[in-house]
Specification:
This protein is α/β, with parallel strands linked by helices and about 350 residues long. The chain has eleven helices and 13 strands. The protein has a single domain, classed as Rossmann fold (3-Layer(aba) Sandwich). The two termini are about 35 Å apart.
Length: about 350
């Protein structure tokens, strides 16, 4: 799906019996219970980090499903261009706000996606990153508790750190450096998960926690610092493609549309399905393989160069998605080659617009 498709062309999420994503035979009752909250029952959804890469895709999907959306963002990494096509929709409302400060709203559900997710972004202000994870979770959990509503937490595969278990199941507690340069994000997300389950056990808050593995697609930032966007932008600009380490480290790449489908399925599952649940693509590629695919797809003459591996950079990352298959009837459907084509097209258009602006202002 092209990230710039108008909302009117998107399919509704739930009439599960009519969708392609039907639970496979043998899936649990939780997967069959996805119609508990049908699309006809419109909800007012609060999406924090809604102008970001993932948040904007989620806002678009929720609007397509007939919901009203309150998009909350402080624009530290979010961008107006990600939601410009949604501003015309009367069911969409944008609020500039930082989740480290309390926010009160009459909403029916909360989706917490607020936090920079790329290492350069979250390491730029590590104290604020930790506050976003911890204070943001506290403020939003309090709102959910006061209103008696369901709340979704976008956690991360980074809670597994540099894993000693491969692939990573939800039962694995991780191998995380608590004082390294990535700790503000890794430990911040781990602390947020703790708060979510404490509010669930102590106050009965209805929670959903997802652990996101490497995701890519349209609306990533050119300067994001993540491997897919880095390689594509370097290739399109004809620059050297920079691999950190020897390129043998592995990642599993999930296209954004597949990820959002997993979000929706988890949020609409019964209250007994709290998570944490891994959502990601178990297809595993080396970083070198990804670089070669990007060069081939773009037709670039870029050369691959190697630099030292950053501190605490994980050597392997691959989700065990057995729980998502069993409880949600979910598995990714878009192969890496197909998703890369759409992502490259997006960056090609974005960079072309930037070049035009530079030319006009020169």
């Amino acid at each position: 799906m092209n990230g710039n498709l108008p909302v009117s062309r998107l399919r509704p999420v739930l009439s599960v019996e009519k969708r392609r994503h039907e639970p496979a035979a043998g899936t649990s009752r939780a997967a069959e219970s996805l119609v508990l909250r049908p699309a006809a029952a419109a909800r007012r959804s609060l999406v924090t980090g809604g102008a970001g890469f993932l948040g904007s895709h989620l806002c678009q999907r929720l609007l397509a499903d007939g919901n009203e959306v309150v998009c909350l963002d402080n624009f530290s990494t979010g961008h107006q261009r990600n939601i410009a096509h949604l501003m015309r929709n009367p069911a969409f409302r944008l609020v500039r706000h930082d989740v480290i400060d309390p926010y009160a709203a009459e909403v029916d559900e909360i989706w917490n996606l607020a936090c920079p997710a790329s290492p350069p972004a979250y390491q730029a202000d590590p104290i604020h990153t930790m506050k976003t994870n911890v204070l943001g979770a506290l403020n939003l959990l309090e709102l959910a508790r006061q209103r008696g509503i369901r709340i979704f937490q976008a956690s991360t595969s980074e809670v597994y750190g540099d894993p000693a278990v491969h692939p990573q199941p939800e039962s694995y507690w991780g191998n995380v450096n608590p004082v390294g340069p990535r700790s503000c994000y890794d430990e911040g997300k781990r602390a947020a998960e703790t708060l979510f389950f404490d509010y669930h056990h102590q106050h009965g808050v209805d929670i959903k926690v997802v652990r996101i593995f490497n995701t890519y697609g349209p609306r990533m930032r050119p300067e994001d610092g993540r491997v897919v966007s880095n390689f594509i932008v370097q290739a399109l600009r004809g620059e050297d493609i920079t691999i950190y380490g020897d390129g043998s480290q592995t990642r599993s790449f999930c296209f954004v549309d597949d990820l959002i489908e997993g979000f929706i399925r988890l949020m609409n599952a019964g209250p007994d399905v709290t998570g944490p649940i891994n959502i990601g693509n178990p297809g595993e590629f080396t970083v070198r393989e990804l670089a070669e695919m990007v060069v081939a797809e773009t037709g670039s003459r870029s050369q691959i160069v190697y630099r030292p591996l950053p501190i605490d950079d994980p050597k392997q990352r691959r989700p065990d998605i057995s729980v998502a298959k069993r409880e949600l009837g979910w598995s990714p459907r878009i192969p890496l080659a197909q998703g890369l084509t759409q992502t490259i097209d997006y960056f090609d258009r974005l960079l072309a617009r930037e070049y035009r602006v530079l030319a006009e202002t020169a």
